[in-house]
Amino acid sequence: MDYKRSTLIEKDYTSIFWINNMNYKIKHAKIHALKTYILLGLLVVCCVSGHGQTTLISEMDKLEWEKVLPGVWKATFGEMGLNALDFADPPKTEAIKELGDSPFPFDKDATYSLQTQRRASIRLPLDETENIYGLGLEFDGINRRGNVYTLKVDHYGGTKGYTHAPVPFYISSRGYGVLINSSQRVKIHVGVGNRKDSKTPEPIDRTTGKNWSARPLSDAVEASVQGKGFEIFIFCGDTPLEAVQRYNLYCGGGVLPPKWGLGFWHRMHTKSTADDVLKEIEDFQINNFPLDVIGLEPGWQSFAYPCSYDWDQTRFPDPKRFVETLDEKGIKVNLWENPYVAPTSTMFNDISPYTGSHTVWLGEVPDYTMPEAQKVLLDHHQKSHLDIGISGYKFDEVDGYDFWLWPDHATFPSGNDAVEIRQLYGLIMQDMLVDHLKKQNKRTYNLIRSSYIGASSKSFVIYSDYYNHEGYVTAISNASMSGVLWTPEIRSAFSAEEWIRRFQTVCFSPMMQLNAWSSGTKPWSFPEVTDMVRDNIQLRKRLLPYLYTAFYSYNQKGIPPFRAMVLENGYDSQGTFTGGKLDDSKNPYAEGKMIEVTDQYMMGPYILVAPVFTGQKERKIVLPEGNWFDFHTGEFVGNNETVTIETKLEQIPLLVKDGAIIPMLPSGVNTNVQNNTAIEVRHYGTKENTYLLYNDDGVSYDYEKGEYSLTELKVEKEKSGKLIGSSIPLNNNKFNYGVITWRWMTK
Amino acid sequence: MDYKRSTLIEKDYTSIFWINNMNYKIKHAKIHALKTYILLGLLVVCCVSGHGQTTLISEMDKLEWEKVLPGVWKATFGEMGLNALDFADPPKTEAIKELGDSPFPFDKDATYSLQTQRRASIRLPLDETENIYGLGLEFDGINRRGNVYTLKVDHYGGTKGYTHAPVPFYISSRGYGVLINSSQRVKIHVGVGNRKDSKTPEPIDRTTGKNWSARPLSDAVEASVQGKGFEIFIFCGDTPLEAVQRYNLYCGGGVLPPKWGLGFWHRMHTKSTADDVLKEIEDFQINNFPLDVIGLEPGWQSFAYPCSYDWDQTRFPDPKRFVETLDEKGIKVNLWENPYVAPTSTMFNDISPYTGSHTVWLGEVPDYTMPEAQKVLLDHHQKSHLDIGISGYKFDEVDGYDFWLWPDHATFPSGNDAVEIRQLYGLIMQDMLVDHLKKQNKRTYNLIRSSYIGASSKSFVIYSDYYNHEGYVTAISNASMSGVLWTPEIRSAFSAEEWIRRFQTVCFSPMMQLNAWSSGTKPWSFPEVTDMVRDNIQLRKRLLPYLYTAFYSYNQKGIPPFRAMVLENGYDSQGTFTGGKLDDSKNPYAEGKMIEVTDQYMMGPYILVAPVFTGQKERKIVLPEGNWFDFHTGEFVGNNETVTIETKLEQIPLLVKDGAIIPMLPSGVNTNVQNNTAIEVRHYGTKENTYLLYNDDGVSYDYEKGEYSLTELKVEKEKSGKLIGSSIPLNNNKFNYGVITWRWMTK
Predict the structure, then answer these.
(1) What's the DSSP call for residue B565?
(2) How far apart are CA A36 and CA A33, in angstroms?
(3) How many angstroms separate the CA of residue A677 from the nearest CA in chain B?
(4) Which of A411, A428, A429, A591 to mutate to test the interface with B (most CBs of B within 10 A)?
């Protein structure tokens, strides 16, 4: 049998790409010039004189950490390809400094890197009690410990980690975050997998042992990518939220959407004409539903899948007049498109030199890592869409599947790797558009189906064809730990109950959208619940001052406006493993399941949202420490406990923190005209509190130059114990709200 | 925005691993010595003077084909790592030559290779009408066209192509096979994905076009692997079966199992003791069930998951006596194990120097690409198991999941790539054991949970925890086109009906096994159907002369004994696409489904098996050209048509080809004593025919030295039209059966 091995090993020796431990010492060297190549040739030959070996931890390279900002550390390992952070906004360094310093969260000497033949990997320590969150837009579960994720931009539903926004950033319950900055598909082992020389539990005989586990506890996170290296960032913090804040701030802070973006979005059926849209708008008025954005689906284009990006002259004979008409009614227009250019497009000839080897749906694939390609698209879109008042886009199909996107072996004119281009496609399109409109001092709010590292400041919300309501709610939490926004958009429903339940969720999400592109549904499609739907939309719209301020806090401090409960102080995630029951055909490893709460989340500083799913007559809500009150009645509900509430069809359960100060518009106010509007300010519970209410013009970037108003809303107790409220304008008054009516919700 | 691109591209230029089209010319060079490394350094520097580019087909390298045997062509591209064929048996060149020559199946000038930064890829032509089969042990569908497979050894159920035996070998309905020989995970695009300069259909506007497809027709198969190259083999043929035969023969031909391997296998509950086994054997006798092999599950070992491989002295105090006792009863013993070595194993210290960096279930992972590691295992197993009469093993857990196997970045003492070691682990274990026992002139028959290229000659049958009955049946067909055997073993059932239906399937499969490791079920666990179960087992056992001869044909001619209908002449697979119905949440691309027949297959030359699933009162059967007859009654059923039959609980539908000659044992004959046994030879239909009946000692490799009997069974028509049968011994008579009773089934 000897011949087999010797043949094989010889092959390895003769491969120039064979890398031995012994040459790790050269891996940090930057290779720039001819002489270095020759030197490398020499080194490789010298080094591979021995044989392969099993690398022990003690033989791995230690990562070298450099502090880049207070509480932010970086280690670089090898060479990387496309860098996602090149497409993120620059760090908000002042805001990071304001968070103060924070110690490095674990032993630096216990962090390692390793280059194997085809992969670069790292090893970071993990203690027994840590929970790990994040890793992008997942629809299933919140605690990521005990699994392996292959973080690949794709539709959801394949291998774990294949998703629209597979962000290689994780957060520990101990209060730090780790970003593995690579544009390759990061494969990450979160507390599973043990090295033979690592600290591990004793093995257990499965036949007789009671606590045998198919995934024995591991003391590390190990991650790897194909190729030759990456950057690792540690975002420190006293809490998981602080780690998230630092990550978001490092990526430029969170997005502050235009106010209209937080209104009601309705997407038309794909075959709709300009007249159909005008009729639909009338119907909205007749049915007394607000409407802030109309989305046009593929049929606005003369050709789609692949796309022409040119107006269909039959359905939209006068696009300019059409958009103006809607603008006069205070309605923005958003255009669907995908990146694949049809031969019939007026921009086809200009962009074709900058497209990749493979087509998608027979359309060419622009290489938007090239400024030349970006320029063709932006010039075309400026002239055909933006100049006539289009507010933004829905960039579809930037994610997967493999069976219609370009293959991993495709080539692109920039020379960038096809895998990396796919991983960053959505991010680059976000960056391209936002950057372009920012030069015109215009804020925008858009949809996209893929995102990645560094997206928190982008004016884009992710959506999916995945349509599980429970998963949609879980995704709101997970998005908040990955620097992305997510909309659980409603499309259709099997019953009036499902319709209102889904509507309630989407009303309390980053984008309130009905996507009727195929179903042609309207908000009033289920008459039994039409009033309830209207009330929920209305409530969301009334909360605009509160929500807009929460987004400002995302922008300035990196605090996600919608966020996972595990980012909340005093919250017990109640994550436990059930013991798995052995079933020879269904669960042959008797694997347990993580039982955790995934169906509630926070909106802004004070409101806990607990969506109800079809069929639920009651539901449990886990309340963090402190007193919590019913949003509608102000009544006390509980403190640091799990309560069970009976559901009401008309209401989504909203719980409010003690001391909450919640500014609300009156009913029926248009999102565009809020300055000087009289507002109601609610207070819940019995605590004194101070709240900073934010406002600005709602549409431009002038707020970055100080053009905004901040009002301090203060609730104090008189000696009698009676609460009184006051408001103090803090800077300029230009965008102040009008008369304030205080409402004391808790009697 | 310019800075982004220039930064990125610069990085590519400075990477030593950046490969430009211009240096393809060096890719075939073998790199052996110092000077070559320097030369390469120079070449790389010279070549990357331009920029990246989109490679057009005309710019790709043409593959260079070399004829290695009649009808077998090979092209080599770049360098590869582990070579699976090094672990296969040598080609049966004489048998391949006997098949004759066959023309290269498509235009050689339309075959291309391309090296991109991190991947090696090929492109082969595909015509509009071709169906593509194979690609390993899949449970879903038979025609692979229109999908992308990432061929990775893993449990089934993740991304398409993750399976126990993801063999990168495909067969065209036009009658050729393509083997992409790589031990990396081959990613293969089967008629999906178009290049911008390839022959493609015209794009269709989805909004208005009727025939828009999410997967437009493509004129190629493209495949790629991470790294720097692979070999491609074309196995020509006049029919798909001939291509399969050439592939199997190139891998050493098919396995000829020992006769006992084709008997009834029963696996004990994991906690069983030696006494429990003896009691179980008694119960088999009492219940009048045959028993040929007893499988012992983890509990025979002193420690399992990870494994000690040492007998548990409490449950098996005298293994030698135990195995002898069973041997006296004509029962073989098969031992379960997985490859991960427990620290308590008596072989731990010896093998530990040859294990990888990571543990599995805290057991060390031997690097069996090293002969040193193989020697430790074989020495131990010879002494502890084989010397006392153990017949073989069930090698479990050689497949996945990622969350318990070693990571892709693990290191191994041989220096071989962790991904390749995983891909080949099962294959190498098969090779190691069969090779070892062959030196002792002992045939064996075993179970394994992963396999790969080159496994047809190995005495192993694959099984899975996946337990869908329909999928299990589909897998029988797919296995036959990938050089592997598959058992749809029965474990447990929800009802007596399911029990008998699953039992019927497993009785007509390569291994008839009840795996009660966890359920503790017995063949008589559902008393209502016990007689039916017994009758089905009996029927399978009676068919041994027929089945054993079919395996001989696998061995000598590469014809799979159980095989897909698409390998049958005159069979219409009836594969059609349904038009997909658009559903905005469930099927937003309105994707159609491939409707094809997956629930019937061939056993030996004449018998079509059509398993019935729980709840089916009737089922359709697609009959190829020619007259087909009912196995039990001999009555005519149909010809080249789809018939619907009413099912009977006690019978699995078996259809027999016109002219079939089927030799059968009498009831109750032990698998070990068949020489000189009187046999019944059935004839079906009206055709004259000749059949070669094979027999040998059933246990050794002496047949390779001519120690076997071949008997010509001939059916001829007298002038009166009456059929008469005759038998002529063709070589030595040592293993002839006894008196032949002809039975004319069709009146």
Answers:
(1) G
(2) 5
(3) 40
(4) A411
Interface contact B193-A14, CB threshold 8 A: no
Residue from B517, B503, B513 nearest B461 by CA? B513
Per-residue confidence band for B653, with pLDDT thresholds at 50, 70 and 90: very high
Q: In angstroms, rounded to a whole number, what is the distance separating the alpha carbons of residues B194 and A358?
A: 6
Residue pair A619/A651 in contact (Cβ under 8 Å)? The answer is no
Interface-testing mutation among A58, A118, A311, A586, with chain B (most B C-beta atoms within 10 A): A118
CA distance B150 to chain A (A): 10
Cα torsion through B453, B455, B457, B462, rounded to 10: -150
Q: Please report which helix (H) or strand (E) contains residue B99, including its range.
A: none
Q: Could you please report the per-residue DSSP string of B402-441?
A: TTTSPPTT---TT---HHHHHHHHHHHHHHHHHHHHHTTT
Specify the pLDDT at position A672. Answer: 63
Residue A109 is given by DSSP the state G
Q: What does the pLDDT read at residue A106?
A: 96
Query: Prior bond to A162 cis, omega within 30?
Result: no
Residues in chain A within 8 Å Cβ distance of B20: 415
What letter represents residue B483's amino acid? G
B417, closest residue in chain A (CA to CA): A117
Cα separation of B292 and A651, whole Å? 66
CA distance B527 to chain A (A): 21
Q: From CA A206, how far away is CA B396, in angstroms rounded?
A: 14
Q: Would you call A45 and B37 a contact, using CB atoms and an 8 Å cutoff?
A: yes
pLDDT digits (tens, 9 = 90+) for B682-695: 999 999 999 999 99
Contact A359 B118 (CB under 8 A): no
Of B32, B215, B357, which to mutate for an interface test with A (greatest number of A Cβ within 10 Å)?
A: B357
Distances (CA, A) of A393 to A267, A430, B83, B414: 12, 10, 50, 53
Q: Do B54 and A369 touch (CB under 8 A)?
A: no
> Measuring CA to CA, which residue among A77, A176, A194, A94 is closest to residue A133?
A176
CA B277, CA B326: separation in Å to the nearest integer?
9
Q: B659: closest CA among B713, B727, B589, B737?
A: B713
From the list B364, B409, B492, the residue facing A121 with the nearest CB is B409
The values of phi and psi at residue A311, to 5°, are -65, 140
Nearest residue on chain A to B228, alpha-carbon basis: A17
Distance CA A52, CA B152 (A): 24
B266 near B305, Cβ under 8 Å? no
ipTM: 0.91
Give chain B positions within 8 Å (CB) of A119: 408-409
Q: In this structure, what token pair is assigned to residue B586?
A: 């469930």
Average pLDDT, stretch B384-406?
97
Question: In chain A, which residues have their Cβ closer than 8 Å to the Cβ of B2?
Answer: 371
**The two structure tokens encoding residue B82:** 């582990």
pLDDT at A580: 84
CB atoms within 10 A of CB B527: 8
A194·B355 Cβ contact <8 A = no
- Interchain proximity A518–B364, CB inside 8 Å: no
How much of chain B exceeds pLDDT 90, in percent? 86
Q: What gap in Å lies between CA A610 and CA A642, rounded to an integer?
A: 12
A215 → closest Cβ in B216, B363, B403:
B403
Which residues of A fall within a CB distance of 8 Å from B195? Answer: 357-359
pLDDT digits 0-9 by tens, A659-693: 999 999 998 776 666 678 999 999 999 999 999 99
Reading the block at residue B473, the tokens are 């049946």
Give the up-direction half-sphere exposure of residue A279: CA atoms within 13 A in the CB hemisphere. 8
Neighbours of B728 (CB within 10 A): 10
For residue B5, give the DSSP letter: H
Nearest CA among B553, B595, B550 for reference residue B572: B595
